[in-house]
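Q: A reviewer asked whether we had any structural model of the full assembly, not just the individual parts. We don't, so I'm hoping you can provide one. Inputs are below.
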Amino acid sequence: MTLFRNWRIRDWRARYWRMSDWYDQKIEVIIAQLLRAGVLAAALVVISGAVPYLGANGWARVDYRTFHAAPAELRTVHGIVRAAFSGDSRAIMQLGLLVLIATPIVRVMFSVAAFAIEGDRMYVFFTMLVLTVLLYSLFGSFLIA
Amino acid sequence: MWQTICLNVLEFTFLVWTGSLAAGFLGALTGLGGGVVLVPLLTIFFHVDLRYAIGASLVSVIATSSGSAAAYVKEGFSNIRIGMFLEIATTLGALLGAYLTAKVPANALAIIFGLVLTYSAYVSRRTRPRTGVEQPPDPLATKLKMNGTFPDTSGIRSYNVYRVPAGFGVMFGAGALSGLLGIGSGALKVVAMDQAMKIPFKVSTTTSNFMIGVTAAASAGIYLSRGYIDPSLAMPVMLGVLLGSLIGTRVLVKTQTKRLRLVFSVVIVLLGLEMLLKGFRGGF
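A: Here is a predicted structure for the entire assembly that you could use as a starting point for your response.
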């Protein structure tokens, strides 16, 4: 932390961009690794639902020609989590996809924290705006959909 | 074609997985993105309904963006401030696009899709003339702290960002298309940054990769609540594209991709024309 406070004092203009780039870069590497872990976790959850699903329905006929929309319990965060924990294999796959959808959202959350630590209020505000849109889409979009 | 010969779930899942693997691999290898060929693949060859295809494609876009972030970030080109600021435009655009998918008829969507496909192939073939003249820094970009540095062969190079409002506008459009069609619309994002905002190409492409996942997440919630994301279909697509793109980014370092890019561009154009034709005939 002291590192980031010191460089602001002298030679602000010349140093600011370079140091903030360096700092951004370091944070980015950590976030990227977390993201990859999140994606792999999502893939594992999807696979753990896919195995029982294919085992039980592998010989059924396929029908994606006409749109029926996924069942209601697979369309909300709450419903997916509940159905997945009751052991429904399709819901487990959907839960994995939900984990995947959450990875960029978590990334934006980390960015809010990173900008806050850096003391960059303007970018905390911008990032919060993005986060609001994302959370609205995931939790509140049934209002318009 | 495939569904008419009575495939069972196991065979269908395996074929879709293989196709997605190829799409993800080629997309990562050529830098053109795999999402853009997934929807034509699913709708034309597997006769999947356009809405299911769009939902599955969007999910796979998030997988490639988040999965390859580590590979991109290590190079140190991406500019998180530019990315985050423009995300305001792309996420709002994505909300609008995802909202519109339900209102726009499927055939119109297919036609838009065809146009976007052919355009993105065209953009990737075009050579970029670069003006070497250094302009004074743009006051708005300076205020937004967008000017940055990136590692070059000759050490650290600094760059300035210009025409922020224009870039913001194009980004809104890119977000809307992403939400409308379930694609990453990486090509358009790069155009906004590289052409409009004069951001160095390397910085544009890596920042675009970061933005693609966040943009897609903005429409994913809406797709989910509409029932566009069917787990049984999205499962093989997501797993295939993810594995394909991970292998693709590994191989990328060792191969000459020039010819491959040309071949893949031709494939994209052909798929685009097929979508256009089928859309105009009312085949969706």
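A: Points you may want to mention in the reply: The helical segments of chain A are 2-9, 12-57, 77-85, 89-118, 121-140. Chain A has one domain: 26-55+70-143.
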